[in-house]
Amino acid sequence: MTFDAYAPTWCPGCGDWGIRIGIKTALEQAGYNPSSVLLSFDIGCSGNMNDFLNGYALHTLHGRAIPTLVGAKMVQHKTKAIVVGGDGGIYGEGGNHFVHACRGNHDMTVIVHDNMVYGLTTGQVAPTAKKGYKSKSTPRGIIENPINPLALAIISGATFVAQGFAGDVRQLVEIMKQAMNHKGFSLVNVLQPCVTFNKVNTYAYYMTKTYKLDVKYDPSDRKKALTKAMEPFEEKFPLGVLYNVKAQTYHEQWPQIEKNMLIENKRFASFSDITKKFV
Amino acid sequence: MIVKHVKIILMKFNWKIGGEAGFGIMTSGLEIAKVATRSGYHTFDYSEYPSLIRGGHNTYEVVISNDSVSAPKWEIDMLVCLNKDTFELHKDRLHLGSVILYDPEDFQPDSTSILIPIPFKAFKKECNIDQKMVNSIALGASLALLGGELKVFETIIRDEFGKKGEAIVKENVELAKKGYDYILKEHCPLKQILQKKKGERQMVVTGNDAFSLGVIGADCRYYAAYPMTPSSSVLGTLAALQYQTGMVVRHPEDEISVVNSAIGAAFAGARAAVGTSGGGFALMNEALSYAGVAEIGFVLFLAMRSGPATGMPTWTEQGDLLFATFAGHGEFPKIVLAPGDPEEMITLTLKAFDLADIYQTPVILLSDKFLSESHTSLPEDRVLKLLKTHKIDRGKIVAKTKQGSEYLRYKNEPDGISEQLIPGQEGIFYQANSYEHLEDSHTTESGVERIKQVNKRDKKRQTYLKKHFAEPTFYGDPKADTVFISWGSNKGPILEAMKILAEKFKRGFGYVHFTHLYPLDEEKIKDFMNVKYNHRRILIENNSHAQFGSLLRMQTGIDIKEKWLKYDGRPWWPEEIVQRLTNKS
Ligand SMILES: Cc1ncc(C[n+]2csc(CCOP(=O)(O)OP(=O)(O)O)c2C)c(N)n1
Ligand code: SF4
Fold it and tell me: pTM score, two decimals?
């Protein structure tokens, strides 16, 4: 039993290939197998990984990969939980859920394929695209400013925020391992060239615009992390772990599941303790 | 099932209190109801209030009876006016023997009923208390007039406020005593309505309370909701009890998160439920469809209010039946149940969780403001028996499978139901796929496989009709020539109306009460309806489109021509039904 499922159907050269290798390798190196993980896939080219990566998985609705996994995690909080989705699903359609999952410090790793377009629906603009980006749905360029996922995650309460590049799988594996090892909400925003629809944010583009965070960079400083997180607005993309702090996770604050997972608890049967309150 | 139980009415006394929102009317009303049940009587209460926190007019009425009672009563026998509006708004419901409690400093009722002036304002000043505490004086006065006991009132106050300290209990009781003594001094007790007698230990529960009890009894482990009247009290009740019951009760960021998280919880192996009203339900529709195709069962509690959109938030209506029935895009099996009273709410909630597991599909439980927020007395033993004897049936949900590593989550089975493994077993994996899928849960677009899965899902509907669908219940006289047909919370008013009608016309009436609303079994319903009663049939609904009538016709071909519809945000009153029948008969 391996993580390998169907052969991927992504376009040749698509950044999704590298991301999948990154996730799979990180999971394997960390000692997981398909039976020991809960995966939640959004809808999109990215979410199509559901058929390419084995696991106990939810292939959810567009935008809903996070809240669905939040529910599953409350029931089996000891199981490793991972979300895979696109920038459209996670920051657009499901943006509200993203913010609130950060707020709650829900214990899960959210991996976002940030390609600045909607791949699966053939190239319309995504909320991370730069102002002025021209696409099928925005022929004269997008009016809105881009979302800044890294900054948004940090100010919303995420406790681990990183950025990787689909063209650098070796670094991606390291980032993902750290993210999966983190207790609490971890975001890995992956810069992912969509070779078919995005002719601006290409591999060549990222080769010149990305840089690795210095080894001496201290990810525990929230203010510095925020400053770094703002750089993509100037088309400078830091790669690595921007922010990493310890904090109580969401499930750790529920006495009901302090010892056991929710499914392991015994059935409640002291009914008269309840009915007497209504007498 | 046939239930013959048209009994003669012995006593129904209607006590009503009214005042501005923020006066604590709701608390006082419930206290009187509990005094009645703890004195050996049965109660039904009904409250009206605007969607406001302060101002506006709030009322609470309690029918006290020596027999079980299932609806409000039109005539008011005692009206406690905490302001002039209370009198003005309700004077058309008073009779000569009605008792009116009022403060002459506020107004003088222009009425031929029995007037009991009480100087509430003077008391308020004298005792230096806030408006809410004036209610205790009014309750004490009511008790004195009705022949009730202050001691009983004290037990209720102690249960309610004991935790907040003896001082609060004492203050409330002393104020009640002030009202009580005032009546004994200035007036004389009028009625022996609340005279203490022996009776069973009774609970006083709303439909929402009953649902909450069912949720606990069914071993639901995960409940999520976003507040929306009239479903909100379930969230509060279950949240308060969660540290005792062990349930996880959450209030997520929106209804979309609510329902998807419940689906995730059910996927992970726990029984899960959500609660909402029309607007929130609309937001949940896409997820309902996901649960349909991914075959994940959960219970959705839909407490209806007057729509569309924000509508009249604190008023009642049965306007979302067709919406619930057809909610979610695409075709998938879904079960819609509608209890008619709190006891049925418990029974059907327990059943709903079983059905959600057995059929691995969403089950919608319909309520409305009238059922969700009206209290009824229920013997505690009966409730405990329902909860304790309930055996949980999780159908084909298993923690261990005998299948090999090629797990067939959507295996084609004759009854349409595949084994659902709770994630965790070593050597196995599968997905809960929102795309059409193969038996092994991988995505497919093959026409052949598509048809297989569509048929498989539809087989679950057929299996349900064979195994778990329940015919309507018939109440009343099987030979009746006039039969009412309805569903949901109309049950109570119709049954009360039938008691009055039987008295009045000296003949029996019938009521066909539907609880399993969708899907309906055409043959069974036809047999039930055609064989027994082909006389005058009257469809009663609390909406303007006769939605159940449409659903019945669509699913069975039965067309009920005579439709009585009400959609002013108020429930049917028994007397209204009686009057309408009298006028038309
Ligand atoms: C509610 C809903 N709206 C729209 C769609 C159509 N849709 C499918 S994928 C997608 C966007 C995909 O973009 P993204 O999330 O960025 O993922 P990518 O394909 O780029 O990996 C959309 C709009 C849908 N499936 N569901
Ligand atoms: S359309 Fe873009 S994102 Fe989708 S597979 Fe092709 S290259 Fe990748």
Answer: 0.97
